Amino acid sequence: MSAHDVILNLRELASLTSTPDGAQRVAWGPMWRQAREWFAGKLKEIGIQPTTDSAGNSWATLPGQSPKTILIGGHLDSVPNGGWLDGCLGVLSAYEALRRYAGARPAVTLKLVDWADEEGARFGRSLLGSSAAAGSLKVDDLRNLRDKEGTRLLDALRENGVEPDRMGDAQRELKTIDARAYLELHIEQGPVLESMNKPTGVVLGTFGVERNILRFTGQAAHSGSTPIPLRRDAFLAAADTALACREIARRHSRPGAGVVCTCGVVKVEPGIVTAVPGICEISLDQRALDPAVLAQMLADARDAADRAARENNVSLEWKPLWRIEPRPFDARLIDLCAEAVREVTGDAPKLPSGPLHDAAEMVPHMPVVMMFAYSSNGLSHCKEEDTPANYLEQTIESFLRLVEKTATAVAAGRL
Ligand SMILES: [Zn+2]
User: 118 CA distance to ligand 1 centroid (A)?
Assistant: First the structure.
């Protein structure tokens, strides 16, 4: 049973690169290098010599009868005290897909990629290797990044044989192959599949994000002497806005197409119990898969915040923090993925991805789809991360089927 072999490999990797606190494969560090060495040994067992590109991504190719290529991705790096499945489930399932064909020549070329520094756990820049390969990385943005000890990212890169100014050369990897599909298996890292009690889900794409700071300015005043109708309470305007934004998210959510919003930061001034708040700043993070829905959510939030400011007699200023477009996956691959999942598990729930993944960087370059495995208690980035054994096996089996179905579709010219 090949799904079982994947689980054995995952356990072996965990035993080599974890402490009692969890996985310690932080990118550019010694345990990560050890994980990669171990993995290179695994590849050699099936006659494949991995290569490393100029951004530190590791590639393994099984040439097929046709140069048309299916890319299968994942990442061996983890956060500190991470889970045993995040990232490496994708890499080791990809390994199994190659191992199945080793010694033979598959109809199309299979290429595994272990992306470097997906997590950004040490220096704060996620999707580092995949963004270099995709051409969306700006090396200048890396120059001032340091870890907690003050080590510069650029020095950590050089220590690992990566010359920062040449990271863009990694774009060659995609430009010199005939890539027809990108597939990635990952643990969900959230509670959606668990809430449905489904082992495996088809991922529709990664959310777009609109992230803003809203600053409400009223007038600080004495909490005893100022009658409520005469107040200009900045906090209440912010609170009205936060509640309105929750309603907006509810209104725009559809089954299988949920949207979210979060006010995660609230700052109140003067911040004393006997004063009406004169200033209140909140963050507003809105996410959706459909660009039109995301734009409408933002417009609705602007209306709601304006109304709340007016009703509370305060002024309002918006400060943009960050935004990213939604990255919807390929409809044909979503169908193939659903077929594979349904054949193994009986049902194929579809869900968007809240977190970003390397797959999102591939969307502008080729058809992409991801598959998610059930997260026990919705937990990830911690040692408790897990998928029940039978669900994990079914998910891996579904993913191997997806690779086969994709190979058949590419060979037949349908992708
Ligand atoms: Zn991950």
Answer: 7
